[in-house]
Specification:
Strand content: 5-15%
Oligomer: single chain
Helix content: 25-40%
Shape: globular
CATH topology: Rossmann fold
Distance between the termini: 46 Å
Number of helices: 8
CATH architecture: 3-Layer(aba) Sandwich
Organism: Branchiostoma lanceolatum
Protein name: HSDL2 protein
Structural class: alpha/beta
Largest sheet: 7 strands, parallel
GO molecular function: oxidoreductase activity
Pfam family, one: adh_short
Keywords: Oxidoreductase
Order of helices and strands: EHEHEHEHEHEEHEHEH
Radius of gyration: 19 Å
Strand order of the largest sheet: 3-2-1-4-5-6-9
CATH superfamily: NAD(P)-binding Rossmann-like Domain
């Protein structure tokens, strides 16, 4: 059976490349995002990405979806299930970002990041889980980082929302044990080429192509076991664990490796009392 995927936040950047890579590997892809009209300031829509996929012989389904609207996320999931006959892989790549201190982050902007980053991911998971659990198979991926202290520096409001996604991954993983369904977080080791890096004129020596994240994403989708359930992976490190050693094809400036912005080792969050029950399962 031909596999299927939904990518939320797929109109440009990493999301676009994930959709293209999955389609190139034979997936039928639901291309979902808010952007439906192309503009000079914000190029790329669900339709341009879908056209790009179909022009390469792939199968794409453009789905308008504002992730701040739960009904639109529910529709994106149900549309894929209906049109494709099932959903094997759900990717949450939508994101809102503001790297500022608490005092410089207005509540309105914090609410936006909470809605788009944490709440939107939660809604997608709740929409996709019943179908995947019934089939006893499925993979869910959130674009979220490993949890470590340095990530909070100078951007605590944003970090709250992204780490919240990682907590969701690690907590839900416990609920998914032995179900055939798994959830994983993925984050890039370096800065990734995007519309923002282009607009801000960041030199290409500082970032990699989005293909590296997309390739890691595809490998996670195709993992036959549940060994990645609950893990927060780094794209480069995960690909190296699969035997990849040459990363030159991901360079934006040939011959130049961009600086790594993520630590090479992350702290374990496990404690000695990991399996000790502290709250009764039954309601009080």
């Amino acid at each position: 059976m031909v596999p299927s995927a939904l990518v939320l936040g797929a109109s440009r950047g990493i999301g676009r490349q994930i959709a293209l890579t999955l389609a190139g590997a034979g997936y039928r892809v639901g291309v979902a995002a808010k952007t439906v009209h192309d503009t000079p300031k914000l190029p790329g829509t669900i339709y341009t990405v879908s056209d790009e996929i179909t022009s390469r012989g792939g199968h794409a389904l453009p789905i308008p979806c504002n992730v701040r609207n739960p009904e639109e996320i529910d529709n994106a999931v149900s549309t894929c299930i209906q049109e494709f006959g099932g959903l094997d892989f759900a990717v949450y790549n939508a994101g809102a970002i503001l790297w500022e201190k608490v005092i410089d982050t207005p509540l309105k902007r914090f609410d936006l990041m909470m809605d788009v980053n944490v709440r939107g991911a939660y809604v997608m998971i709740q929409a996709a889980l019943p179908h995947m659990l019934e089939r006893k198979s499925g993979r869910i991926l959130l674009e979220a980082p490993p949890i470590y202290s340095r990530f909070f520096n100078g951007k605590a409001p944003y970090a709250v929302t992204k780490v919240g996604m990682t907590v969701l991954v690690q907590g839900l993983a416990r609920e998914l044990e032995n179900t055939g369904v798994s959830i994983t977080a993925l984050w890039p080791a370096t800065t990734i080429e995007s519309h923002v890096t282009t607009v801000k004129g960041v030199p290409p020596t500082f970032f990699r192509k989005a293909d590296i994240v997309a390739d890691a994403c595809l490998a996670i989708a195709q993992e036959p076991t549940e060994r990645l359930n609950g893990q927060a992976l780094i794209d480069e490190d995960y690909l190296r664990s699969l035997g990849v050693t040459d990363f030159s094809k991901y360079q934006c400036l040939p011959g130049t490796e961009p600086p790594r912005i993520m630590p090479r080792r992350f702290p374990s969050l496990r404690v000695e009392e990991e399996d000790q029950v502290t709250i009764p399962d039954s309601k009080l």
